[in-house]
Design brief:
There is one protein chain. This protein is of the alpha/beta class and about 425 residues long. About 35% of the residues lie in helices and about 20% in strands. It has a single domain, classed as Thiolase/Chalcone synthase (Peroxisomal Thiolase, Chain A, domain 1, 3-Layer(aba) Sandwich), CATH 3.40.47.10. It is built from 15 helices and 13 strands. The strands form 2 sheets. The protein has an 11-stranded mixed β-sheet, with helices on both faces. Strands 2-3 form a two-stranded antiparallel sheet. β9, α13 and β10 form a beta-alpha-beta unit.
């Protein structure tokens, strides 16, 4: 079966809008959190967000949006986008440039696209209110395609003339990890030679604030204390938005084009908790099974894994469940693998998280370092027995596992190898 490699990355994130700035933030453990102005009200308990800088997309009219001047976007393309569609379009252009792809390599029957987002609650609410108050014929013809789950697929496939397979994924916080896994399958089974994998979220009030109602958001007012996975004093996650695009290619395409990959995708596994609609299995049973499935599929032994980029969102229940799953799968967990959660720097990107953090792994492997897990003062006693990295290690891991978990107990584990 063809081997699969990561050949291009594009970023619009709270810790940077290009590979160089993201790598610097990861290496230096520099977070992207701010006190978010719309949340600074007495009736809103959460205050901190991982904000996207250099873009403004808080208007319902795309013509009011601003973005870095290096990106040229036509008006007719912009009018059907959600805010996270703007982020994804710019990250896509970065990834194409990074992978050194020409127009014919982007648009052909052997290049496809998988995307993941939660849609745009911001525009869904706006369009629905307009329909009810002003009537159906006063609604934008682009209202549906700019707001519903799938808006990323609709817009990117049309804008970049994608001719190969295209699919949207909706498994909450495991969505873009699923998108990578199935893209890997399409290439390794010979269905496609190249796949774009995209994850994006608005990261605004409408996308983040409903999680306050679930009592899952941090209530901290200090940005440096708000997101601290595995810490005994953690009190919830911090929301974030943005976009990440990853280019996957077959070994033959890599050789033909003479490009230097970031990393190889070795395989993946998935499993479900079958336990609760919103809460992780207390012992992380589904995640443990997903990790074992990934190891078996990739023919990798647990002792060969050097590092794990954990799902760990900084929630009370989720971090403990993942810690238990990790101890169950890795018998030498106190010594190896090293474990960290980059959500301590970015916050939780929801359906964006899987591909964003997988891209962090690939970038760190090529740049020669392993990010630590920031903001830990005291490890939760229930998360002990793991080698949790609290500082950046100045060498790249050989094999990395990336974990993702979503509502309903959806779990995905991805494996990457340094090239």
């Amino acid at each position: 079966m063809p081997r699969v490699f990561i050949t291009g990355l594009g970023f619009v994130t709270s810790i940077g809008n290009d590979a160089a700035s993201v790598a610097s933030s990861l290496r230096e453990l520099r977070h992207g959190f701010e006190l978010y102005p719309p949340f600074q009200k007495p009736d809103i308990p959460c205050k901190v967000v991982g904000t996207v800088k250099g873009f403004t997309a808080n208007s319902t009219d795309p013509e009011d949006w601003t973005w870095p001047s290096r990106y040229a976007i036509k008006r007719e393309t912009l009018r059907s986008m959600a805010p996270h569609g703007l982020y994804a379009h710019c990250a896509f252009l970065q990834a194409v440039e990074d992978a050194r792809l020409g127009p014919g390599e982007v648009s052909n029957p052997e290049t496809g696209l998988n995307a993941a987002s939660g849609g745009s609650p911001f525009l869904t609410h706006y369009n629905h209110e307009r329909l009810l108050k002003l009537g159906v014929m006063r609604c934008s013809p682009m209202g549906i395609v700019s707001s519903i789950v799938g808006t990323l697929n609709f817009n990117l496939v049309a804008a970049f003339r994608i001719q190969g397979s295209s699919c949207g994924f909706s498994s909450a916080c495991a969505s873009s990890a699923h998108a990578i896994g199935f893209a890997f399958d399409d290439i390794s089974l010979g269905r496609q030679k190249r796949m774009f994998v995209v994850g994006a979220e608005d990261g605004n009030v409408d996308a983040i604030m409903p999680f306050a109602g679930m009592r899952t958001l941090s209530l901290q007012t200090d940005p440096a204390l708000a997101s601290r996975p595995f810490d005994a004093a953690r009190d919830g996650f911090v929301g974030t938005g943005g976009a990440t695009v990853m280019v996957l290619e077959s070994e033959d395409e890599v050789a033909r084009r003479g490009v230097r990959p970031y990393a190889e995708v070795l395989g993946w596994g998935q499993a479900s908790d079958g336990y609760n609609v919103a809460i992780s299995h207390p012992d992380g049973a589904g995640l443990a099974l997903a990790m074992r499935n990934a190891l078996r599929a990739a023919r990798v032994a647990p002792e060969q894994v050097d590092h794990i980029n954990a799902h760990a969102t900084s929630t009370l229940i989720g971090d403990i469940a993942e810690a238990r799953a990790l101890r169950a799968v890795f018998p030498q967990a106190a010594e190896r693998p090293g474990i960290s959660s980059t959500k301590a720097l970015t916050g939780h990107g929801l359906s964006l998280a899987g591909v964003m953090e997988s891209a962090f792994c690939a970038l760190a492997m090529r740049e020669g370092f392993t990010p630590g897990s920031a903001h830990i003062s005291r490890v939760d006693p229930q998360c002990e027995g793991l080698k949790i990295l609290r500082e950046t290690v100045p060498q790249a891991p050989g094999i990395v596992m990336k974990n993702s978990s979503g509502f309903g107990g959806a779990n995905v584990a991805l494996l990457f190898r340094k090239v």
